[in-house]
TrEMBL record:
<dbReference type="InterPro" id="IPR036291">
    <property type="entry name" value="NAD(P)-bd_dom_sf"/>
</dbReference>
<dbReference type="Pfam" id="PF01118">
    <property type="entry name" value="Semialdhyde_dh"/>
</dbReference>
<dbReference type="InterPro" id="IPR012280">
    <property type="entry name" value="Semialdhyde_DH_dimer_dom"/>
</dbReference>
<feature type="domain" description="Semialdehyde dehydrogenase NAD-binding">
    <location>
        <begin position="11"/>
        <end position="128"/>
    </location>
</feature>
<dbReference type="Pfam" id="PF02774">
    <property type="entry name" value="Semialdhyde_dhC"/>
</dbReference>
<dbReference type="GO" id="GO:0046983">
    <property type="term" value="F:protein dimerization activity"/>
</dbReference>
<dbReference type="GO" id="GO:0008652">
    <property type="term" value="P:amino acid biosynthetic process"/>
</dbReference>
<dbReference type="GO" id="GO:0016620">
    <property type="term" value="F:oxidoreductase activity, acting on the aldehyde or oxo group of donors, NAD or NADP as acceptor"/>
</dbReference>
<dbReference type="InterPro" id="IPR000534">
    <property type="entry name" value="Semialdehyde_DH_NAD-bd"/>
</dbReference>
<comment type="similarity">
    <text>Belongs to the aspartate-semialdehyde dehydrogenase family.</text>
</comment>
<protein>
    <submittedName>
        <fullName>Aspartate-semialdehyde dehydrogenase</fullName>
    </submittedName>
</protein>
<dbReference type="GO" id="GO:0051287">
    <property type="term" value="F:NAD binding"/>
</dbReference>
Amino acid sequence: MVISAASAPPRLVVVGATGALGSALLELVVEKRFPHRELVLCASPRSTGRRVVVDGALHQVRYASADDVALAADDIVFLCADRDVSLKWADAARAAGALAIDLSGAFHRDLDVPLVVPEVNGHLLERPVGDGLIASPSPMATALTRLLHRVQETYGVRQVVASTYQAATHLGRQGVEELLEGAELALQDPDAELPAHSTPFPLAFNVVPAVGGVLHNRFTTEEQRLVGETRRVLGLPWLNITATCVHVPVVSSDSAAVLVEAESPVSRADLVALLGSLPRVRVYDADQLEATGPTPLTAADPDVLHVGRVRVTPHDPRSVWLWITFDSLRASGALNALNVASLALSVAGRGRAGRTA
C-alpha cells in the first residue's frame, strides 16, 4: 500500500455504489468533505449506465469486474457489495497495492485482516497494514463496541447479553421492497399472502427471530458474527457474550437491548455521564419522558448512536441494562468505514511528515 507516499488526495473506488450502503457512503463523502480527486462508481449489471449525482457532479455507474478497473497504489477501494464480489475486488486491490476497506463481512473471521472501529482499536492502524486490507465490523458490533470499550475501561466487563432488532436494510434493497410491499398488501387485505423471499417468514407486521442461517447449535450466522467481532474489536477473546438477532419491520434503523454485567458496582449517574461523554453518542435521560426513548422513528440524527433506558439492576449493582438505536447504514456502517479511511490517511500523513522533518 503506497498511499502513505502520496501527497495528492486519493481516488475513491466504491464497489456496490448503487446499493443502500454504497449510496450512504457517497452521501457521507460529500457531507464530511472527505478528500478525493476522483470518484469511480461500480455496481452490478442491472445498474450499468445509471447516472448518479454526487456533490453536484454527474457520475456514470460502471458495470466493472475487479479486472476491468486499473487500480493504483494510491486508491482507496470501499467494498460495499456482497461477499463474493468483495473477495474478488479485495484480491485486485492487494495486487495493485491499494487500500481496501471491506464492509461486506467477507473478512470478519480472518485474523490477518485488521477489524477496526477507530474509537476503540484505531491503534491497529498505527503500524503498516500488511496487504492493505482493513475490515469494518457489522453495524451492530460497531455500535456495541463503542459503548462497551469505555465500560470495560471504567468498570470491567464480565458478561454481555444482547437482543438485537435489525432493520430491513440488512436484507438489501429487495428486503426493503418486500417490507414496503408486504405492509401495503396487508393494509389492503389482512388475509393476503405476504412476500417472504428474503426471510423465512413475511417481515411486514411481523418479527422474524433469526437473522442469517441457522447453525448446528441453533445460533445463527449473524449471532456468531456479532459475538466474534465484538470480542476481536475489544481485544477480549474470552469475553462471555451471547446474542439473539431478530429481523423487525423497520426500514433502516437497528436497535438492541443490552445487559452488561460489570466487574465492579456501577453508579447509574456516573454511567449516564460516561456514555454521554463519548463522541457521536446521545443519551436520553433528561426526564422520565425522555428516558422512555429513543426509538428508530424519533432518533433524528442519523450519524449518532442513541442510548436510553440506562438502568442498574436493583438486586445487583454490577448489572446494567441499555437500549440503543441507530441508523445502520450511516452511523455504524458507512461512517465507520469512512472514519477508518480518514485514520489511515492521517497515519500516512504523519509518516510523510516524519520522513521530511
